[in-house]
Amino acid sequence: MTRVLDGNAVATSIRDGLSTSIDSLGEQGVTPGLATVLMSDDPSSETYVSMKQRDCEEVGINGIHVEIDVEAPAEELLSTIAELNTDPAVNGILVQLPLPDHVDKRAVLQAIDPMKDVDGFHPENVGLLVAGEPRYKPCTPHGVQKLLEAADVDPDGADAVIVGRSDIVGKPLANLLFQKQQGGNATVTVCHSHTDDLAAKTSAADIVVAAAGVPNLIDETMLAEGATVIDVGVNAVDADTEKGYRLTGDVDFERAKSVADVITPVPGGVGPMTRAMLLYNTVKAAGLQHDISVDLP
Ligand code: NAD
Prior knowledge:
By secondary structure, the chain is α/β, with parallel strands linked by helices. The protein is 39% helix and 15% strand. The chain is built from ten helices and eleven strands. A six-stranded parallel beta sheet has the order 1-11-8-7-5-6. A three-stranded parallel beta sheet has the order 3-2-4, sandwiched between helices. The protein has a two-stranded antiparallel sheet with strand order 9-10. Strand 2, helix 2 and strand 3 form a beta-alpha-beta unit. The chain is globular and about 50 Å long. The mean pLDDT is 97. It binds nicotinamide-adenine-dinucleotide.
């Protein structure tokens, strides 16, 4: 019987645990604060940011939101970040990506105080992750790791194939899964757009994580019987719906389900976990900045 992992349920239990951590910080006079910065008029970016603000409100994190005109010079964004870096009420800063073309994304990510970099994209935090001493694990890979743990799928000794090598998903996830640490110890293969014979790699894997942004890239012909399949992809495909599209993953869910032991749906799999792990990093950041040791879920 295939197990379909309920990312909403796992995310809810993490958020419940975070509420307890937030209460204990509150007893010491600290309320975690997350600043979201939006420099985009893309409706999906606007939706993502408002969901993050709503999540903060629900768990008791103080949400601060800053919007910057999409045509403003990059300096305006950089000076906003500089102010947030020194604002003691702000423990985490999240700049919603993508940014407009005239803004250098790397310069922006490097301008964020690494202690407040709750996305985990600053080079200092990337370095700590690679060194096996992560300060803030990037939210989506951390969410995948927590989902595997909740499903009792231990990567230790498993062959894991990650499809996608992006800085925000594939690369950090590879680091988490092969580290000599709990939730790691897998043998990891990272596939990408230049990989020869993707199916040969995925069909030899115990765990397949799809993060390519290609709808229905993976089906049952590319999977081993009994595999664990985690679908990170979120793709809008044309559909006869009110919005004119529907969201689908990188995995052909119905077909993959016929061979997988464990599988995540889209939506309702990795997405809610990404949101929960942002809250996790913000609470962790508040603890670190106030030198308070906080129990995290
Ligand atoms: P990206 O475009 O930065 O990277 C995609 C990667 O996939 C690249 O490394 C590319 O080489 C690889 N790739 C593309 N086509 C391939 C193919 N045919 N075979 C093998 N590899 C291929 O994307 P990203 O930002 O890492 O996001 C990937 C997907 O995950 C997207 O659908 C995105 O929307 C989704 N996503 C979801 C969440 C979430 O919380 N659920 C978070 C981040 C990204």
